[in-house]
Amino acid sequence: MLPFTYDSLADRYATVRPWAKSAVGDTFNRCAICMGYTMRITPSGDDVTIEAIMNDELGTSFRGARALPGGPQSGVPRGSREPLRGLSQMLFIRAAELLPRIRRAYGKPDIEGVCREVTPKVLGRKGVLYLENCYQTAGDKKWSFLFMERTTGDHWDLFDGSKIVAQDDWLCGNNHTGQLHFWQAR
Question: What is the pTM of this model?
C-alpha cells in the first residue's frame, strides 16, 4: 500500500497534468512526467528524461511553462543514486523506466497480472495503475495488420475505483492482454 492518500495523489496529479501539457505539448506522452511528479519519484542518472529529447521547439515550450508547484528540487532525489540538476532532468519521459523506480521506492504492486484477469480485483479500490502494452504507438500502427495488432505502449494513471482518471475511461470490460500493476492508496 502506498504511503499517500488517494486525495493527496489526486491533488498532485491535478496540479501536474495541465503543467505537463503546457511544458511539452501534445507531441509526447505525458503520463510518466505526471506520475513521477505525483509519486515524488525522479529519474536516476541513466534514465531517459525530458532533457534527452529536448529540441528547440520543446525547449521553448518547456521554458515558457509556469513554475511547477511542489516539483522536484536539485540534490539527490529519493530512490536515486546520483544528484540531478535542472527540472528537465528531473522528470521521466518513458513510462517503462518509471516502473522499476516505483517498485524500488514503494515496493511490489498490491495487485498485478494480466489486465483482463486481475481487473475484478482492482475495481472498487483507489490508487495508481500501470498498464503495459496497452495501446498502439505510432511504430505499432506502422507494423500492424488487420489480423495482428501490435501494442507496445505503456500508460501510468490514477484509478478512482472504476475509471482511469486521465483517460476518463472505464477499466471494467476491457480485453487488454498486457500486464496491469496496481498500488493501492491509503
Answer: 0.77
Burial class of residue 156 in the structure, from the number of CB atoms within 10 Å of its CB (0-12 exposed, 13-18 middle, 19+ buried): buried
Among 12-16, 72-76, 154-158, 182-186, the least confident range: 72-76
- 12 Cβ neighbours under 8 A, 6+ residues apart: 37, 38, 70
CB atoms within 10 A of CB 177: 13
> If DSSP codes are grouped into helix, strand and coil, which group holds residue 173?
coil
Q: How far is CA 148 from the centre of its chain?
A: 27
Contact 134, 176 (CB under 8 A): yes
What is the rounded distance in angstroms from the CA atom of residue 68 to the CA atom of residue 45?
21
Residue 52 · residue 93 · CB < 8 Å: yes
Q: How far is CA 134 from CA 16, 37, 56, 169, in A?
A: 23, 22, 31, 13
Residue 182 β-bridge partners: 111, 129
